[in-house]
Amino acid sequence: MFTGLVSDVGRILSIEDRGELKRIRIATSYDPKGIELGASIACCGPCLTAVETGTHAGQNWFEVDAAAETLARTTVGTWRAGTRINLERSLRIGDEMGGHIVTGHVDGIATIIARKDFDGMARFDIRAPHQIAKFIAEKGSVSLDGTSLTVNSVEGDDFSILLIPHTLAVTTWGDRKQGDPLNIEVDLMARYAARLMEAK
């Protein structure tokens, strides 16, 4: 379980093909001694399992395995050495719940259709996959590339978000541009509410 509050921006060091798996090494500021093998870490949205950790030449890193399902349904398959990704450690009892409940189970890939910068902030217009657009509501929450964000407006499959200077500075959002794909996870409560309505 996560909150969508990014705690580090990692960088892909290497990707190794292992049949249908990809072993991915990620540079991080996290202390590898504090990452237990088997721990869950949200990597730009998807919840991935730490399988190895270490330090080389003063650089901390951890490794994850991405399976075929993850590669097919998220942007993980597009990562290359040097790609910067948002990271978040899993929530612990007693941690501040500053974002919203995020599972790390990505629903699909959204696309940035426009970016407008002003006063140090940036407004992004985003197109969601049609099958999940119904779960996105004005003033509701959405996780994009592992970042908990508030929806400003909704029109059909399109919605907008506004990022403040701090978020642009401490996440990968400062680099984002028109045409970029994003991992999207809709609000868990919206998904369950819709399912209950369908059951009736």
SSE arrangement:
Blueprint: E1 8-18, E2 21-27, E3 40-43, E4 47-56, E5 59-66, H1 68-73, E6 84-89, E7 108-118, E8 121-127, E9 141-144, E10 147-150, E11 153-155, E12 158-163, H2 165-170, E13 181-186, H3 188-199
Antiparallel strand pairs: 1-2, 1-6, 2-5, 3-4, 3-6, 4-5, 7-8, 7-13, 8-12, 9-10, 9-13, 11-12
Describe the structure.
This protein is mainly beta and 200 residues long. It has helices at residues 68-73, 165-170, 188-199; strands at 8-18, 21-27, 40-43, 47-56, 59-66, 84-89, 108-118, 121-127, 141-144, 147-150, 153-155, 158-163, 181-186. Strand 11 and strand 12 form a beta hairpin. The mean pLDDT is 92.
Brief descriptors of the model:
Elongation Factor Tu (Ef-tu), domain 3, 200 residues, mainly beta, seven-stranded antiparallel beta sheet, 3 helices
Largest sheet entry? 7 strands, antiparallel
Relative helix content: 10-25%
Number of strands: 13
General form = globular
Number of domains: 2
Structural class: mainly beta
Q: How would you state the average pLDDT, rounded?
A: 92
CATH class value of the largest domain? Mainly Beta
**What Rg, in angstroms, do the CA atoms define?**
17 Å
* H/E element sequence: EEEEEHEEEEEEEHEH
Please state how the strands of the largest beta sheet are arranged side by side: 10-9-13-7-8-12-11
Stretches with pLDDT under 50, minimum 5 residues: none
Share in β-strands: 35-45%
Question: What is the fold-level CATH name, i.e. the topology of the largest domain?
Answer: Elongation Factor Tu (Ef-tu), domain 3
Termini separation comes to: 29 Å
- Individual helix count: 3
Q: Which CATH architecture of the largest domain would you pick? A: Beta Barrel
